[in-house]
Design goal:
Blueprint (H helix, E strand, L loop, with lengths): L7 E5 L4 H12 L3 E6 L2 H11 L5 E5 L5 H15 L4 E4 L14 H29 L2 E6 L11 H21 L4 E7 L7 H8 L10 H9 L4 H14 L3 E3 L5 H16 L3
Parallel strand pairs: 1-2, 1-4, 2-3, 4-5, 5-6, 6-7
Length: about 260
């Protein structure tokens, strides 16, 4: 069992949803927290909740902002100590029909859900490699392993999975671990949050009730936080929150292998 006491974690999207669930699990283990989010009221509330348990610093950060990322990282390490746990968790659930796609929608979806992860990795990875110590967990989705009709979302999440798998290979033996979280349904409020902050790619009103009901059928954010840390302790490449995608993943794998058998 890992001794987490005295570690420092930087969690993007850390003020709510899965990020907050991870932060709570870390706090229970004595980990100092640097929580980054675009939602200042939620940051204030999470800091109030967790500061009685562990040291907490908060940063209003848009993960697309590389200079802001660097400044937050510098301040967090000055205030709390070296960051050895990075959770690139911030994200949105963008949606568009193919007829309504635009460059602006692509740019927004990829900037938040993919480039935001890249920015976190590039900000902290050199520090971790220099110290030969660290762990990076990138939040993707089950939709990053088995595609669904949400084109903007699936594109970014597939890329996050590939980034994480390749990064893990590149840093093997250098003191840095990498995992990718591929959650199924979790009641995070992400649909409403996306509609509020980025209405141009928010899910259409007609689909919201069904999607939110589906998400409510999964584990709580606190349960997911514990799953994530268990996965980190076990050194897992992929961390799952349920087996909802398993039959779809098996079907995809079989189809890929069948394609080889039918190749000329």
């Amino acid at each position: 069992m890992r001794d987490w006491t005295g570690s420092v974690a930087f969690v993007t999207g850390g003020a709510r949803g899965i990020g907050l669930g991870i932060a709570r699990a870390l706090a229970r283990r004595g980990v100092g927290l640097a929580l980054a989010d675009v939602d200042e009221p939620a940051l204030h509330a999470s800091a109030e909740e967790l500061s009685g348990v562990t040291a907490v610093r908060t940063y209003r950060l848009d993960v697309r902002d590389r200079d802001g990322f660097a400044a937050a990282a510098d301040d967090a390490e000055e205030e709390l100590g070296p960051v050895d746990l990075l959770f690139n968790n911030a994200g949105i659930v963008p949606h568009s029909t193919v007829d309504e796609l635009s460059y602006a929608k692509w740019d927004l979806a990829l900037a938040v859900n993919l480039t935001g992860v890249v920015n976190g990795v590039q900000t902290f990875l050199p520090r971790m490699l220099e110290r030969r110590a660290g762990c990076i967990v990138n939040t993707a989705s089950g939709a990053g392993l088995v595609s669904d009709p949400s084109l903007l979302y699936a594109t970014a999440k597939f890329a996050v999975v590939g980034l994480s798998e390749s990064l893990r290979l590149n840093v093997a033996g250098r003191g840095v671990d990498v995992s990718v979280l591929c959650p199924g349904p979790v009641d995070t409020g992400i649909v409403a949050n996306t509609r509020r902050s980025h209405a141009e790619v928010g899910l259409s009103e007609e689909y919201v009730p069904a999607v939110e009901e589906f998400l409510r059928g999964g584990p709580s954010v606190d349960e997911v936080g514990e799953m994530v840390l268990a996965g980190v302790e076990a050194g897992q490449t992929w961390i799952f929150t349920g087996d909802e995608i398993r039959p779809h993943l098996e079907k995809r794998a079989a189809a890929l292998l069948d394609a080889f058998r039918s190749a000329p």
